[in-house]
Each structure stands twice: as C-alpha cells, then as structure tokens.
Amino acid sequence: MQKPNNHKSVAPIPPPLNQRFRRGLLGGELKEIFDEYADPDKDPSFHKTCIPVKLMQHEGESLLSRSQAKRLISRFDRFTEVVLDFEGVTQIGQAFADQVFRVFINKCPSVHLKTRNAEPDVKNMIKRVQSTQ
What we know:
globular
C-alpha cells in the first residue's frame, strides 16, 4: 500500500525566465541586468529594484491598509529608485496609496518611486493622494 504524499510540491520556474537566466549567465544579458540595477561608477551595490506589487495580495486580498503598505515599503530606503509593478492589481485603497505615495515620499525624498502596468483605478488613486501634498 502506497502512503499518501503530504508534501506540497514547489512550482518550477517558468521556462522563459529559466531560459533567460541561462542565456544571461552565458551571454551579455547578465551585464545588462547589472548595468540597469547598479551603478559601478558611484557604488557597486544595487541602487534600483523592481517590486511586483501583486505579491502583496495574500490569497487575492485587496491592498487597502497602511500596514500592508508599510510591509511593502519596509526596505525601500536602501535604494535610490524603486519601480512598483502593478501588473495584476486592479485597485488599491486610499490608506495604502497615501502611505506609499505621500507619507513615504515625504519621509524619504531621495528615493524615487516609479509605477509600471498600473490600471486606471490604481493610477487615479495614486493621483488623488499625491494631490493632497
């Protein structure tokens, strides 16, 4: 009798990313990544990061609260540029947007936030909180 397998399997890396990683190690793509995210003339450490905001949505929950935003921005001050990729995020709450796009920006003006792939509702909420500065 075969015992049931109670271990959850780990999903494999999607092939395109896996192939890109292999090509990067063997080709010039790795240099391109370092050139984009680090500035060897100033400091060899990474100065830029890109955050997929969708990862903050635990089990599809909405991004509404300041505490969620604080978890998102907890280490942004280590970078000079942070790109927030909103792909797959259809809306954010006012408190979440305010904490990221007004409070954090006022607290850490040397960190430049950029957005990518934001839906119209997300863009509107960001504009709304930025207009109160």
